[in-house]
Design brief:
The chain is an all-alpha fold. It has one domain: Cytochrome Bc1 Complex, Chain D, domain 2 (Orthogonal Bundle). The longest helix has 30 residues. The structure holds heme C.
Length: 172
């Protein structure tokens, strides 16, 4: 065992440790978003399936990883007080939002939801009434930042495996 060999092995193991921390970090952040001021039972949600272990998917790479990280921070700073990915908090669970609504709806909604309700957007009015006409604040976020938040939400959804497929989360 000589010095040159160590110079190869040391950086390689550092990279390994870093990756492990990233994977763990992402799966933990899924858990950290969970605490809900309103108990899921009170919000009429079915009990969360806890039996299945949450399998972390491979960490996305490159631009995706950057968007997920940025979205994570933006979500925690701006949205987490009222939203979780899989639970109703003050506002609806945001899992599946990218399938329910196009980006062309989500972006103006986050920027100014009351304007969309006032304009009479059918979905906006419906969800506004459904949540006891509680106004969501307007956010001065860029389109890019809102997209990053949605990317983060989609990444969190992927962390949940079977419950989505079996529709447990979908019945809201
Ligand atoms: C003060 C609480 C609050 C905050 C903070 C908040 N929201 Fe909301 N959000 C709501 C409520 C309540 C609704 C339900 C509609 C309504 O009442 O206007 C909602 C609805 C939504 C919807 C529509 C959901 C669906 O199922 O169709 C999206 C998308 C959304 N919010 C995204 C966000 C994002 C992204 C952020 C952070 C940038 C955020 N919200 C921050 C309260 C909040």
């Amino acid at each position: 065992m000589n010095k040159a060999w160590l110079e190869v092995v040391m950086p390689a193991s550092l990279v390994l440790i870093f990756c492990t921390i990233m994977v763990f970090g992402f799966s933990m952040s899924g858990l950290l978003v969970e605490p809900a001021p309103v108990a899921p039972e009170l919000a009429g949600e079915p009990a969360k399936p806890t039996a299945k272990p949450i399998m972390p998917n491979p960490v996305p790479t490159g631009a995706d990883a950057a968007a997920v990280a940025a979205g994570d921070a933006l979500f925690k700073r701006n949205c987490a007080q009222c939203h979780a990915v899989n639970d109703v908090v003050v506002g609806p669970a945001l899992a599946g939002i990218a399938k329910r609504r196009p980006m062309s709806w989500i972006i103006p909604w986050v920027k100014n939801s009351s304007k969309m309700v006032a304009k009479g957007d059918e979905y906006a009015v419906k969800i506004f009434n459904q949540y006891s006409k509680q106004q969501m604040p307007s956010f001065q976020l860029s389109d890019q930042e809102i997209k990053a938040i949605v990317t983060y939400i989609e990444f969190q959804e992927q962390q949940m495996t079977d419950p989505v497929a079996t529709g447990v989360v979908a019945c809201r």
